[in-house]
Amino acid sequence: MTLKDKVLKAHDRQIKLSYRLAKVGYDTFTGKLLRLRVYYADALILIKNWRDFLYIRKENIGDKYFAVDQAIMHSTHSQVQKLMQVEPQVRGNDLGIIRILAPSYMLNNPLSLGMNGNQHTGVRALFLQALPDPVAQADVLGNLVNQSLSEAANRGQLHIGDDLPGFMLQILHQLVFQISLSAEEITASRTYIKGLALASFPTFISKYLLAFKTAPNIKHRGRLIERYKQSPKWAAYLQTAARYRLNEHQIANSLFDMIHIAGTAGTSALLGSVIGVLCLNDVLRGEVISEINAVWNGKEALNGYALEQSTLMNQVILETARLYPPVRFVSQLAKESGEVAIAGQQCPFQKGTRLLGSIFTANRDSNRYQNPDDFDVTRDFSDLLSWNGEGHERACPGKSLSIGLIKVFLLYLFQKYQWNSITQVQWDFNNVTAVTPNDLVLKGFAQHL
Asked: What is the CATH number of domain 3-447?
């Protein structure tokens, strides 16, 4: 059976399931069991063919279709934008297409993306307090980035997939908690991030049958959270959290997820893609270097002016985020039951059904972007969907720091460091991981003399 046949046959099962769920109930034992079966059936295809999965269903079924556990996928720019801007939203404890079925992996704390009401508002306030303004603290960011890059220079190479996540973990822990991680802690945190999919198994499987994998990760999370409570910034976080009736458990675990998932997995993936873009495009790289030389000579401490004046660099980052978004799906829950038109049929859906938005296909929607698969820094990014857009409660609170950190890395990479060769630059559009050229290595990596 071809991949297309598998993808479309699996969707036929989803349509039939929608009618069965209308009879047996969405959240009944039978309903949950039926949904779980199709969730894993889709997951087996998605894990190794996620982009083809999206486009096969979009091109053969339509702009809306069922996916994973009876979720309704929205694939166009206008659909996803509308979905993001719904207020107030009802969220489930999901990470994109991944359902968190084993909350123990999160120490029984919901992801910030799964929080609602006062808890959601309080955690966002906590994030905004914890994340510094990159323009105001450009010199601090510069020193932290330089320390990381000097480590790579000592090894003589910068490996995108191996080095950047570790750098980001160290930098974010310094910024948010003023603590340094040991090499062992960084390795354990990276293992935790790589094992996030383990939380998609039911608790019994994740906690017991896969304990040899999950137990070390959960223990590391617990130990690191205890370190957070010793931070000189902890008292200030407690004061903010008290206004929203958040407890210590919620504070520490929410900040852990912010650092490890959005901060590290997200920002390091986008940084890697930006470096890959500039390695492949000699003309664009030369223009970026010219801008860097104009805004900062590398001799004095980095300042906010250099970040603010790096306008071409900003466009490069935004266009890279459009083509290679580190976060590819956005999710919320249906507030009421209803019907949806899919493949010419009116299919029932239930209250609590996941409504998924495919940021990847929306960012490449030809109705919104001309020649959407081309890299073009002159585009209008006013309604870019990466970072969940702007001006509403779903917007990413870390967008400015994410872009600022990437700018600082580029300023130092091209002003204070050099390399003599690179390996192949290739984005992975098959495996369900961030779209990043993880195998790219800058060889002969060293500081400028």
From this structure: 1.10.630.10
